[in-house]
C-alpha cells in the first residue's frame, strides 16, 4: 500500500503491485503535505497546508476527526506507537501533541525559530524529534 498526497487537496491509497486505487480522501482545502498510518493500520493521519490535521478511518471510508490549532501550514504528522496521540509540525514554528481520544491539543512545543518541517515519535517512548528550517533538531519529552 502506498499513500500519496497531491496539490489538488486529495490523498490516494494505492495497492501494490497492481496500482489500483483503494481509497481517496477528500476534505483538505490545500495541499496534503504528510501522512502516517496508525500503528494498527486501521486509520491514517494527514497534514495539510490548510493548517489542519485529519484522521481518516478506513472502515468508515472517510475523515472522522479534524484537528485545528496551527496558525500556518502543517508540514508533517506522526502517530505515537500506542495509537492515542498524534504529533504535528507546522510552518508556524511549533509542533503539537494531539490527544485523539479527547480530540484536543495536549501540548504545544515552542522553541524553533523557523518552520518545523518534520516530527517523529521515538517508538514506544514519550520522546519526540522535530527538525526545523532554523537548521536544528530538537528532542522533546511529550509528558512535560
From TrEMBL:
<dbReference type="InterPro" id="IPR019775">
    <property type="entry name" value="WD40_repeat_CS"/>
</dbReference>
<dbReference type="Pfam" id="PF00400">
    <property type="entry name" value="WD40"/>
</dbReference>
<keyword id="KW-0853">WD repeat</keyword>
<feature type="repeat" description="WD">
    <location>
        <begin position="109"/>
        <end position="144"/>
    </location>
</feature>
<dbReference type="InterPro" id="IPR015943">
    <property type="entry name" value="WD40/YVTN_repeat-like_dom_sf"/>
</dbReference>
<dbReference type="GO" id="GO:1990716">
    <property type="term" value="C:axonemal central apparatus"/>
</dbReference>
<keyword id="KW-0677">Repeat</keyword>
<protein>
    <submittedName>
        <fullName>SPG16 protein</fullName>
    </submittedName>
</protein>
<dbReference type="InterPro" id="IPR050995">
    <property type="entry name" value="WD-F-box_domain-protein"/>
</dbReference>
<dbReference type="InterPro" id="IPR036322">
    <property type="entry name" value="WD40_repeat_dom_sf"/>
</dbReference>
<dbReference type="GO" id="GO:0035082">
    <property type="term" value="P:axoneme assembly"/>
</dbReference>
<dbReference type="InterPro" id="IPR001680">
    <property type="entry name" value="WD40_rpt"/>
</dbReference>
<feature type="repeat" description="WD">
    <location>
        <begin position="67"/>
        <end position="108"/>
    </location>
</feature>
<dbReference type="InterPro" id="IPR020472">
    <property type="entry name" value="WD40_PAC1"/>
</dbReference>
<feature type="repeat" description="WD">
    <location>
        <begin position="25"/>
        <end position="66"/>
    </location>
</feature>
Amino acid at each position: 500500500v502506498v499513500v500519496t498526497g497531491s496539490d489538488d487537496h486529495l490523498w490516494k491509497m494505492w495497492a501494490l503491485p497492481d496500482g489500483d486505487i483503494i481509497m481517496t480522501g477528500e476534505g483538505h482545502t490545500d495541499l496534503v503535505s504528510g501522512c502516517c498510518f496508525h500503528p494498527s493500520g486501521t486509520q491514517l493521519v494527514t497534514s495539510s497546508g490548510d493548517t489542519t490535521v485529519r484522521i481518516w478511518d478506513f472502515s468508515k471510508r472517510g475523515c472522522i476527526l479534524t484537528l485545528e490549532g496551527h496558525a500556518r501550514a502543517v508540514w508533517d504528522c506522526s502517530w505515537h506507537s500506542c495509537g492515542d496521540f498524534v504529533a504535528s509540525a507546522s510552518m508556524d514554528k511549533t509542533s503539537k501533541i494531539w490527544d485523539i481520544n479527547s480530540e484536543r491539543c495536549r501540548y504545544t512545543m515552542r522553541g524553533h525559530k523557523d518552520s518545523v518541517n518534520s516530527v517523529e515519535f521515538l517508538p514506544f517512548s514519550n520522546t519526540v524529534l522535530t527538525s526545523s528550517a532554523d537548521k536544528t533538531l530538537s528532542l522533546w519529552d511529550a509528558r512535560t
